Amino acid sequence: MKSIFSHDSKLMSILDTFANTMILNVLFVLCCLPVVTIGAALTALFAACRAQTRGLPCFRAFFKAFKSNFLKATGLWVLFAALIYLCAGAAINLYIMDGSLVVFIMSIVAGVLLLNLLTNCLLFYSRFECSFRQLLQNGVIMTLSYPIRSLLITVLMWLPVVFALVPALLYTFFQLAMIWFMLYFGTAAAVCVWFMKRPFARLAEKLLGIVETDPVDEPAHGQ
Predict the structure, then answer these.
(1) Which of 87, 140, 149, 190 has the fewest CB atoms found within 10 Å of its own CB?
(2) What domain range is 193 assigned to?
């Protein structure tokens, strides 16, 4: 029994990961409250999850990524949020005025593709240091090269937003509020980082002028 509860046991490692995920989740939600900071917060969450899988201090990685990537990630988020808002508005207005289901579906698909590209760009930026143009370019490459994986991570990462925006799902959204706040985003981000690990490794071999960033300034043993 003593070995089970020792600091380096499998059980304690699992509990430590679970606790870190919960804390990262809360940090992410709090950093998203201004709304305009969602891009920087999501980039930081991806970086922290990547650090955790490598045995590095995840909280330090979160705050480092949030600070260092803030301007570019925020600019990316604001740009894509505006485009997605325009697509959604166009879809609703055109459907109300003309009743055109085809145009409505096309607008929704365009919005989903933009959200897909945004997610890939932020995930890419959590791992690589690059210019804004390179960020968009490689986000497009990832989206087109791995469409199924990209769609899955997008759905996984933004599912709570769908619940919040669809009137029929709003009650369920509030029922699951504690899960969203305490656990969901941290778990989803960890799955996304794991799911796209191999595609990013393949892409990294072909990239020129792109620097892979360290999640933290230096390796450390504590969290």
Answers:
(1) 140
(2) 15-212
